[in-house]
Amino acid sequence: MIAIPHKLVVAVLAVAGLSLTAYTVFSGERGMPPAAPVAQPARAPFHSVVAAAGLVEASTQNINIGSDIAGIATAVHVKVGDRVQAGDPLFSLDVRQAQADLALRETRLETAREGLERLTRLPRPEDVPQAEARVLEMRAAAVDASEQLALVEGVSDARAVSLEELQKRRQSLRGAQARLNQAEAALRLLKAGAWPEDLNIARAQVKAAQAEVDAARTVIERSTVKAPVAGEVLQLNVRPGEFVDSRSTSAAPVVLGETRVLDVRVEVDENDAWRVRRGARATGSLRGNSEIRTPLRYVRTEPFVVPKRSLTGASTERVDTRVLQVVYAFDRGDLPIFVGEQMDVFIEAAEPAAQPAPAEHATQAPASGVAGARS
Prior knowledge:
The protein has six helices and 15 strands. It is α+β, with helices and mostly antiparallel strands. Among the domains are: about 50-60 and about 260-350, Efflux pump adaptor protein, beta barrel domain (Elongation Factor Tu (Ef-tu), domain 3), CATH 2.40.30.170; about 105-215, Orthogonal Bundle (Helix Hairpins), CATH 1.10.287. It is rod-shaped.
C-alpha cells in the first residue's frame, strides 16, 4: 500500500474547499429569476391619475336589517340572492304573547265602549215612569198635608185646636213639600241624561283603550320584519328557532341592498385628496383580474375625512392615515363583480402646478425698504 503524504492531503482539501466556495459565490450572484405575478396589475387609463382602492357596496348601501323586538324566529321568508320589493316580509318572530296581550286589551276596549254607550243612552225608558209616579205621589202627599193644615186653621174657636197640633200639621206640610221638590228634581235629573263631564271621561277611556289595542297590534305587525327598500338579499344570519336579540352587536339577521347598480367607495389618501376634483372621470378594475374593467360615474364626495378602515393587505400600505371617501357607481349588468370585493380605481387628476422657486431678493426687498424709510 502506497502511503500518501499528509501535506498532499491537506493541500487537496484546501483546493477543493476553495473551489466550492468560488462556485457558491458565483452561483449566488446570478440571482433568482423574478416570479411571474399572479395577476397582471391594472393600468391607469389617464395621463395624470390618483390611484386608490375601492370597496364595492350596494347602491342603497349595505342595509343591516334588524328588529327592535327580541324573540324567537318562527319563519324566514327569503333566501340569499332573492330579490325583494319594499314591504315584502323577510322573517317573523313569535307573537303568541303579543296576541294574548291584544286579546286582553280588546276586552278592555269593549268594556269602555259599553260604558260610554250606557251613558249616552240615559235615561233608561223604564226609569222615567217610576220617577214620574214618585212625583205624583209626593204631590198628593203635599196636597193632603195642605188640606189638613187648612182644616185646622179654619176652626173658628182657637181653643178647639192645640198649638202643638197646629205646629205639627205645618211641619207635615213643609216635609211633604220638600219631598215633592226632591222627587221633581230627581225626575229632571233623570230626564237630563248623563252629565257632560262623565261623557268626556268615558270618551277618554275609550280612546285610551283604543290606543292600547293599536299598540298591541303594532307589536304584532312589527314582529314580521319587512324590507324597507327593493333590493337583493346579500346575507342571511337568522334561521327558524334562533333567538333574535335587538341589543346584539353581532351580524345583522339580514343584509339587504340594491345590486343592479353598484357603488364603489373609494378611499383616497389624505396626501392626494387635494388632487381629486368633484365629478372627475374614473375607471375601476377588479382586484385579481385587471381585464374586468368598467367606467365609473361620479356620485358624491363625502365631506368628512375619516381614519382608514378598509385595508388591502399590501406590504406598502399605510394604515396610520386618514382618507377622503369618494363614491362612484356603475351598472352591474353581467359583470362578475360582487358586493364586498375590492377594485383598483384610477381617478383623473389635474397635473400638479409647478411651484416657483423662491427668490432671495423677494424677501430682502421689504427689509431694505423699511431700512430706507427709517433712515
